[in-house]
Design goal:
This protein is α/β, with parallel strands linked by helices. The protein has eleven helices and 14 strands.
C-alpha cells in the first residue's frame, strides 16, 4: 500500500483544517466522508473532492474502501466509534481527547489491544514543543523542578452555538481544560515521561451560560515530584501567546507559539531537535506521522495509550474542583 485511503467522519471545522493539510501529505487520499447532516457532508465532499459520501458511520465501515478512519466528532461519540472501527479492522486517527473521562479511556485501551489508534494531540509534532520535549527527555536541562503553562485564548458565543455539544459536560467532558488546556499539558507530561500522581484544580465559567468551564487553573504533581501549573482560558479579551516554561537543574526552556512556534533555552547550550515528520504545520506533521505509522509501521508520537496521563491529570483537576482538595490520580485499570 503506497497510498492511505482515509475516511473523514464528522465534517465540521477541525475536519476542514485536516482536509486542507492532507493536500500537503502525498500519501493521503481522502476517499470518503461521513456526517449525520447529509447536506453538510455533501458540501464538504464537493469542496474537498471526496468521491463517497455517507450519513451512516457503520455503513461507511462496512462498504467503503477506506484503509483508515479519521474521527472528528463530538467527544461523547469517541468511545463507541473507536470500538466500531477497531472491530472493522480500521486504524483510527481520533481527535483529542481520547474520550470524555478517564474511566472511559481505561476501558477503551483495554478493548483496543494492539490496534493502531492514534490521538491528534498535534502539538507533539509542533516544532517548538518537540524541541522543548526532546531537550527535557535527553536530560540536557537536568531534573525538571517545575513547569508553567498558560493558554490565554478567546472564544465567541458562536463557538458554543455552532457546536452545541461543547456546552454540556455529558457531551464534552468539560470545557477549556479538557479541550484546549490538555493540548499543552499533554506536551509537558510527554516531555517529562512521568505519570501524574496528584492534582488540584479550580474552574469557573465567566462570560457564557454553559455547563462547562471557560476558565481553569490547576496544579499537577508528577511521580518524580515535578509541579506543573496550568491556566487555560476561553475568555481572554484578546487572544495572546501560549507559553510553556520548564525550569530544570541546568537550564530553562521557554516555548511560545507566536509569531511562530519556537523555544528558547537559557543557561544551557542545546541543539534543537526537529519533529520526525516534515511539514509547515503541526497538524500536517501529525497526520503524516499517523499515515507513516499505518503504511510503514514507523513509530507514531501519539498512540492512544500514551494519552492516558493527560486525561488522568485533567480528571484529577476536575474532581478536585468539586471537593476543594488535592486528590490522588490513579492510572491503574
Amino acid at each position: 500500500m503506497t497510498k492511505l485511503n482515509l475516511a473523514i467522519v464528522g465534517c465540521g471545522d477541525i475536519a476542514g483544517f485536516t482536509a486542507l493539510v492532507s493536500k500537503l501529505v502525498p500519501q493521503v487520499n481522502l476517499s470518503a466522508c461521513c456526517d449525520v447532516n447529509k447536506e453538510r457532508a455533501e458540501t464538504f465532499a464537493k469542496k474537498n473532492r471526496i468521491p463517497k459520501v455517507y450519513t451512516d458511520y457503520n455503513e461507511l465501515l462496512e462498504t467503503s474502501q477506506a484503509d483508515a478512519v479519521y474521527l472528528a466528532v463530538p467527544h461523547y461519540l469517541h468511545y463507541e466509534m473507536v470500538l466500531a472501527a477497531v472491530k472493522a479492522s480500521k486504524p483510527i486517527f481520533v481527535e483529542k481527547p481520547l474520550t470524555r473521562t478517564l474511566d472511559e479511556a481505561k476501558k477503551l485501551i483495554q478493548a483496543i489491544g494492539d490496534a493502531k489508534v492514534g490521538v491528534n494531540y498535534q502539538y507533539r509534532y509542533d516544532s517548538g514543543c518537540y524541541a522543548l520535549a526532546r531537550a527535557i527527555q535527553s536530560g540536557a536541562l537536568g531534573n525538571i523542578h517545575s513547569m508553567r503553562i498558560n493558554i490565554p485564548w478567546h472564544r465567541e458565543q458562536s463557538y458554543f452555538e455552532g457546536a452545541a455539544w461543547h456546552k454540556t459536560i455529558a457531551h464534552a467532558g468539560g470545557g477549556t481544560l479538557i479541550t484546549q488546556g490538555s493540548h499543552f499539558l499533554d506536551v509537558a507530561l510527554w516531555a517529562l515521561d512521568e505519570d501524574p500522581v496528584s492534582a488540584m484544580g479550580y474552574v469557573k465559567t465567566p462570560r457564557f451560560e454553559v455547563e462547562v468551564d471557560t476558565l481553569a487553573h490547576g496544579i499537577v504533581e508528577t511521580r518524580r515530584g515535578t509541579l506543573i501549573s496550568v491556566v487555560s482560558s476561553m475568555v481572554t479579551a484578546n487572544e495572546q501567546t501560549v507559553t510553556i516554561e520548564a525550569y530544570g537543574e541546568h537550564g530553562t526552556a521557554i516555548y511560545a507559539d507566536r509569531p511562530f512556534p519556537h523555544v528558547k533555552f537559557i543557561g544551557a547550550n542545546i541543539k534543537k531537535e526537529r519533529p520526525p515528520e516534515w511539514g509547515v504545520h503541526a497538524l500536517q506533521r501529525s497526520l503524516a506521522g499517523f499515515t507513516n505509522w499505518v503504511l510503514n509501521d514507523k513509530p507514531f508520537l501519539i498512540p492512544a495509550v500514551s494519552t492516558l496521563p493527560v486525561l488522568a491529570a485533567v480528571d484529577g483537576m476536575y474532581r478536585s474542583s468539586v471537593t476543594g482538595s488535592r486528590l490522588q490520580v490513579n492510572l491503574q485499570p
